[in-house]
Amino acid sequence: MTDDFAAELGPDRTLLLVDDDEPFVKRLAKAMEKRGFLPETAQSVAEGRAKALARPPAYAVVDLRLEDGNGLEVIEVLHENRPSCRVVVLTGYGAIATAVAAVKIGAIDYLSKPADANDVTKALLARGGALPEPPENPMSADRVRWEHIQRVYEMCDRNVSETARRLSMHRRTLQRILAKRSPK
């Protein structure tokens, strides 16, 4: 357990991680365990709701877009069963409307993927009305563009022609971009 976060955690260190990206949620669970949390994972809305009902955690990190529905449903169950639960929304599909909806039903913060365990821990343990610090290593413009293209590509079920049409881009140009590695 790292000394930086141990004192801030308090006696109940239970953490529910809800994300359908299995490799990501496993890595995050390991990293959060090293920071003193007691993580439990769920990979669907149904599983997240069931775990929130059975053992409401002190902390939760919930992805908004899950295969079987919207992570906001899990947040509602968490706050019905444990109003003091500190919930952070973590998503690759960030939008102002969903951020506002998440905060209205009880989320304390809204982070865009890719976020690392330190970002998540800081958000979970943040107290008061302090404004978040700007990121130390913001994404480059090329990386932001690449992330946006990847999101639209996934929203179009990996259909290159549909993605190109939605991005007003030539299909071959899009294919070349998708074939390259992500920029730093």
Automatic annotation (TrEMBL):
Residues 14-128 form the Response regulatory domain. It comes from Rhodobacter calidifons. The keyword Cell inner membrane does not apply. Keywords: DNA-binding, Phosphoprotein. The modification 4-aspartylphosphate is found at D63. InterPro entries: ActR_PrrA_rreg, CheY-like_superfamily, Sig_transdc_resp-reg_receiver, WalR-like. It comes from the Bacteria. CDD domains: REC_RegA-like. PANTHER family: REGULATOR OF RPOS, TETRATHIONATE RESPONSE REGULATORY PROTEIN TTRR. PROSITE patterns: RESPONSE_REGULATORY (PS50110). This is ActR/PrrA/RegA family redox response regulator transcription factor.
